């Protein structure tokens, strides 16, 4: 009886020491889950989720303070990715936080711009260049389409322009499966199948 | 010469005889040419002509953008009528920037200057080829100059010239080798001189005996030691990695370039255009195009780049049941959505499509995992697995199964008993993955920029605070001597000795500065914040606004002092500052008093200068304030000749100085007097 208790106590001590050592030796700085969630977010830093950027939203999701369907730029695909990551049920985008829109970039009407620099200060990714009383312009390749520059503009000269598809961004479409034998014209543009 | 073989591959009906019956034809001039600027892999060339410019054939109209990019040239003489988006020979049917040239019919060349490769040097030749728009004409249109430097492995073992032309219907390389073999050999020699390989291999499929004979004759005539090798006809021998395998037995691993294995590969037409560029000064303005399929007379035409495809098709008299045009071969080509699109450097073949010639495929059936596709795949992939993952949009898994090693040759499509358009799935998956990679990179960049902006905002805030603190500290420093100066007369008069007064007065700010440096800093920051708040509160703040009660009290005290000082003005100028003590120390002699008066006046002037804008009573450290208060009190006490006015705290700054007491007896007496009660 005593020896059994002694053995159990010894085992507990050894394991406790091992665990204690491991918790110090293999300590993970920061929350890896937050980083993983952050990686699923589109990094537009638009704040439509109600948090001051993508990282705070990721933190809130990790803590369970926010739902996974509050990110309109991420859209349905983003929600699916988060659902997969967190093992949660997919849910449609919350209407309170906005609607999914096609990707767009801000465009400053250079005739109307008065050079107030308010949009420059609002841009979370420094995609607007200009100086006080000088015309401003948006660096298209850096713009995330977060729309944060729209409200501060006193002359409402900023508009969102949807990004048009061009040859560089064009994607092959998902092949359509024919249920019945195709008619005269092949369904797929690729003649490879016609060979 | 050992011939090796690659795994997989198929043997489709070649359909090459139709278009090889006739020699190469010179396509007639079109009225209008649409020359796309982006015709090769890499950067899009920038247009270097303006609308309305007259151009000559071979004149550069697009400047190469970066090293992986090649110049674009006018295909004939005429006028630039537009630089605009025009339809492209691309499966998307989307437009891209092009230079539209209206031909004047003269077809005048620019002044053609042959280049001397020896004089240019290897780098010069590479730049020259880039400027001449020489790109891989086998279909990939990779800028050739970028391939003309030895790889990381050092010197090349083999240079492979690709004349295999394995895809059905296409015969443009065949005809080029038959008719222009000397040019190809000369171009190969040019590449050989640049790359210095140990041997040069020219691989031609054995279904082109005329081409093989012509090339052998040309090599013999040129006296070169190039090996013209007939390789077995099997699709896709013309793939670079396959031909390298067949000719050298070397297998190029995934994610490696052939140069890593000591092999470089060029198409025969590329070698020919490189030679034309160097030996004749002719940039790439035309190429051979096989026009075949459902047409009356299939033939190879020498077509200017930018000729509308519809016009080229018309040369071959397509049959009435033609329902489309395929660019490229039947295995890898794409159906063109718009025949108004121009011929580009990648256009090797145009096939008139008809349902009779290419019967529609039966409906797609489920994959039975028979493995036929895996047996046919020349890259030894498992297309049925790739198909599964691509179809399920599980792109990570597709990449694990080496999706990007797929060359989209179409062998799997060809053998699939279920008629699954496998390559369409692979293309879909590849473009999705690319798009996602791009998106991810953009998100990553946005995140970095956002984080940097946050960092910068914080740093700016900190810097601003520091700047304000520094300014406040400077101000405090300025006020400190001013305070000293205003103090001076006070002890001077009672002490009746200037030196004494200086020694007495000086230590107090010094003690403030050193001992209470930190307190001073804190106070300065607090003062700066206070000031900023006051400034925000009122657009034009008066320095008397927003003062703390303590400071107001000080000011009141100072004012009171001033008032009290004026009536008691002594004959000496000292009076204004410290007249009060004078009667108390009437024993002082005249000279000392005079000296003290002068010193006091100077100090006062200095204090006035220093405190021109901010009042010297603003922003004092607590210690200083205490000191000032002490002095005031002492003054009052002495002025009223009442010893009871002073307190212990007031005496403290003075008594801290060890010299003060012994050096000046009257102040010491003063101190005694003040401290004793």
Descriptive account of the structure:
The complex is a heterodimer of chains A (about 200) and B (about 675). Helix content of chain A is about 30%, strand content about 5%. Chain A is mainly α. Among the domains of chain A are: about 30-95, Electron transport complex subunit B, putative Fe-S cluster (3-methyladenine DNA Glycosylase II, Chain A, domain 3, Orthogonal Bundle), CATH 1.10.15.40; about 100-165, Alpha-Beta Plaits. In chain A, the strands form 2 sheets. In chain A, strands 1-4 form a two-stranded antiparallel sheet. In chain A, helix 2 packs across helix 3 (about 55-65). The longest helix of chain A has 24 residues, at about 1-25. The radius of gyration of chain A is 26 Å and the shape is elongated. Chain A starts with a helix and ends in a 33-residue tail after the last strand. Chain B is α/β, with parallel strands linked by helices. Chain B folds into 3 domains: about 15-355, Rossmann fold; about 370-420, no CATH class; about 480-510 and about 520-675, no CATH class. Chain B is built from 24 helices and 17 strands. Chain B has a 6-stranded mixed beta sheet, sandwiched between helices. Chain B has a 4-stranded antiparallel beta sheet with strand order 2-8-7-4, with no helix packed on it. Chain B starts with 16 loop residues before the first helix and ends with a helix.
- Biggest sheet of chain A, strands in spatial order? 1-4
Query: Using only CA atoms, what is the Rg of chain A?
Result: 26 Å
Rg of chain B computed from alpha carbons, rounded to a whole number of angstroms: 47 Å
* Beta content of chain B: 5-15%
Largest sheet of chain A: 2 strands, antiparallel
CATH class of the largest domain in chain B: Alpha Beta
Number of helices of chain B: 24
CATH level 1 name of the domain at 32-97 in chain A: Mainly Alpha
Number of strands of chain A: 4
Task: Identify low-pLDDT runs of chain B.
Answer: 489-515, 568-588, 640-677
Number of strands of chain B: 17
Strand order of the largest sheet of chain B: 1-14-13-17-15-16
């Amino acid at each position: 009886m005593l020896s059994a208790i002694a053995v159990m106590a010894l085992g507990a001590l050894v394991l406790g020491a091992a665990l204690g050592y491991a918790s110090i030796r293999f300590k993970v700085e920061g929350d890896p889950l937050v980083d993983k969630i952050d990686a699923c977010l589109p990094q537009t830093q638009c704040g439509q989720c109600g948090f001051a950027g993508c990282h705070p939203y990721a933190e809130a999701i990790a803590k369970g303070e926010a739902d996974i369907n509050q990110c309109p730029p991420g859209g349905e695909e983003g929600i699916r990715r988060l659902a997969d990551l967190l093992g949660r049920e997919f849910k449609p985008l919350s209407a309170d936080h906005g609607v999914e829109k096609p990707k767009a970039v801000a465009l400053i009407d250079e005739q109307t711009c008065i050079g107030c620099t308010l949009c420059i200060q609002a841009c979370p990714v420094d995609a607007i260049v200009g100086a006080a009383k000088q015309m401003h312009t948006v660096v298209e390749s850096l713009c995330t389409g977060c729309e944060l520059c729209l409200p501060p503009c006193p002359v409402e000269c900023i508009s969102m322009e949807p990004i048009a598809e061009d040859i560089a961004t064009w994607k092959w479409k998902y092949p359509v499966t024919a249920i019945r034998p195709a008619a005269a014209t092949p369904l797929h543009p690729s003649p490879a199948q016609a060979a | 010469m050992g011939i090796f073989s690659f795994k997989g591959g198929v043997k489709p009906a070649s359909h090459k005889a139709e278009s090889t019956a006739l020699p190469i034809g010179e396509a007639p001039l079109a009225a209008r040419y649409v020359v796309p600027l982006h015709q090769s892999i890499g950067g899009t060339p920038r247009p270097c002509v303006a609308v309305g410019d007259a151009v000559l054939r071979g004149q550069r109209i697009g400047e190469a953008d970066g090293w992986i990019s090649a110049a674009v040239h006018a295909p004939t003489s005429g006028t630039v009528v537009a630089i605009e988006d025009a339809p492209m020979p691309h499966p998307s049917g989307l437009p891209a920037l092009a230079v539209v040239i209206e031909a004047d019919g003269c077809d005048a060349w620019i002044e053609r200057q042959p280049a001397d490769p020896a004089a240019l040097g290897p780098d010069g030749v590479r730049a020259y080829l880039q400027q001449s728009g020489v790109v891989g004409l086998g279909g990939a249109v990779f800028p050739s100059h970028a391939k003309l430097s030895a790889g990381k492995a050092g010197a090349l073992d083999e240079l492979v010239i690709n004349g295999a032309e394995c895809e059905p219907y296409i015969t443009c390389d065949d005809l080029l080798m038959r008719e222009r073999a000397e040019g190809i050999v000369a171009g190969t020699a040019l590449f050989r001189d640049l790359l210095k390989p140990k041997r040069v291999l020219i691989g031609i499929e054995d279904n082109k005996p005329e081409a093989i004979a012509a090339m052998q004759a040309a090599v013999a005539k040129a006296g070169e030691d190039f090996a013209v090798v007939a390789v077995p006809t099997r699709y896709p021998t013309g793939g670079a990695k396959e031909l390298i395998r067949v000719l050298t037995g070397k297998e190029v691993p995934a994610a490696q370039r052939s140069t890593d294995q000591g092999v470089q590969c060029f198409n025969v037409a590329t070698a020919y255009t490189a030679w034309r560029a160097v030996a004749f000064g002719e940039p790439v303005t035309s190429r051979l195009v096989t026009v075949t399929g459902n047409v009356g007379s299939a033939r190879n035409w020498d077509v200017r780049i930018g000729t509308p495809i519809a016009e080229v098709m018309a040369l071959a008299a397509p049959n009435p049941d033609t329902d489309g045009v395929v660019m490229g071969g039947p295995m890898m080509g794409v159906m063109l959505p718009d025949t108004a699109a121009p011929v580009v450097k990648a256009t090797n073949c145009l096939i008139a499509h008809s349902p009779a010639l290419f019967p529609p495929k039966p409906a797609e059936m489920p994959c039975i995992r028979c493995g036929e596709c895996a047996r046919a795949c020349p890259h030894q992939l498992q297309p049925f697995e790739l198909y599964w993952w691509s179809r399920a949009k599980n792109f990570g898994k597709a990449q694990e199964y080496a999706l990007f090693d797929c060359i989209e040759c179409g062998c799997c499509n060809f053998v699939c008993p279920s008629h699954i358009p496998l390559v369409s799935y692979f293309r879909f998956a590849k473009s999705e993955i690319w798009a996602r990679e791009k998106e991810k990179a953009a998100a990553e960049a946005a995140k970095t920029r956002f984080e940097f902006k946050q960092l910068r905002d914080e740093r700016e805030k900190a810097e601003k605070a520091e700047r304000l603190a520094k300014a406040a500290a400077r101000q405090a420093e300025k006020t400190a001597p001013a305070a000293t100066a205003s103090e001076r007369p006070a002890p001077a008069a009672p002490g009746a000795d200037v030196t004494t007064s200086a020694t007495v007065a000086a230590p107090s700010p010094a003690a403030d500065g050193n001992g209470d440096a930190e307190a001073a800093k804190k106070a300065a920051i607090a003062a700066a914040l206070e000031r900023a708040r006051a400034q925000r509160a009122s657009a034009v703040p008066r320095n008397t606004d927003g003062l703390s009660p303590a400071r107001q009290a000080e000011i009141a005290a100072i004012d009171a002092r001033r008032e009290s000082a004026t009536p008691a003005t002594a004959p000496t100028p000292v009076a204004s500052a410290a007249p009060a003590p004078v009667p108390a120390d009437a024993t002082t002699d005249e000279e000392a008093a005079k000296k003290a008066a002068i010193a006091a006046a100077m100090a006062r002037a200095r204090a006035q200068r220093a405190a021109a804008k901010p009042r010297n009573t603003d922003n004092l450290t607590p210690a200083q304030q205490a000191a000032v208060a002490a002095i005031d009190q002492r003054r009052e006490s002495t002025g009223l000749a009442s010893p009871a006015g002073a307190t212990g705290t007031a005496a403290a700054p003075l008594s801290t100085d060890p010299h003060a007491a012994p050096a000046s007896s009257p102040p010491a007496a003063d101190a005694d007097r003040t401290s004793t009660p």
